[in-house]
Design a protein that fits this description.
The structure is a single chain. Strands 1-3-4-2-5-6-7 form a 7-stranded mixed sheet, sandwiched between helices. By secondary structure, it is of the alpha/beta class. The protein has helices spanning about 35-45, 85-100, 120-130, 150-165, 180-209, and strands spanning about 5-10, 25-30, 60-65, 70-75, 105-115, 135-140, 170-175.
Length: about 210
Amino acid sequence: MKISNVEFVISAVRPNQYPDDALPEFALAGRSNVGKSSLINRMINRKGLARTSSQPGKTQQLNYYRVNDRVYLVDFPGYGYAKVSKVQRQQFGEMIETYLSEREPLKMVLHIIDIRHAPSKDDVLMYDWLKHYGIPVCVVTTKADKIPKSQWPKHVKIVKEALGFRPTDRHVLFSSETGLGRDELWAVMEGMIAESEEEAAETEEVSIE
């Protein structure tokens, strides 16, 4: 996708704060410090729009980024960070569950996994959660530049086996440093956007008839 316009819109914590323009939404979920902000910056070709931090747990809301006035990237709070209080973890969980179970414009969750490490229990729980709600998911194994290319298949296999990865889901190997996987990931999202636009057009035709 050629990026012509990107805007940070809002940090939302409640449904009444979510944008109401019904653009397709793609949420990014992953454990703290997995590189979600870096991935967003690479996807939109902006170095600092999504703020990266060496301090895990910094993102505590749903951060909305509007791209080309056509789609939203929604950055979730990172999960699994021990120093976040139990109350905060519960609040994050409730906020994310509400979003996942009720947000109609959500088209897919990009589940971000560090390819260097086997998925954590929280990663597996998140994946199972997405399957429970029937939400399309693309597993994005990032930080691919940190290990030799020859080791990619081995590490991808470990990730997929630990998650119980379904063949119907998508997977993209990614590097925020080199841009590996950027075009492929946009193509996945473009496909979902096209499907939603076709469904909307069909619904409109039926209502007119």
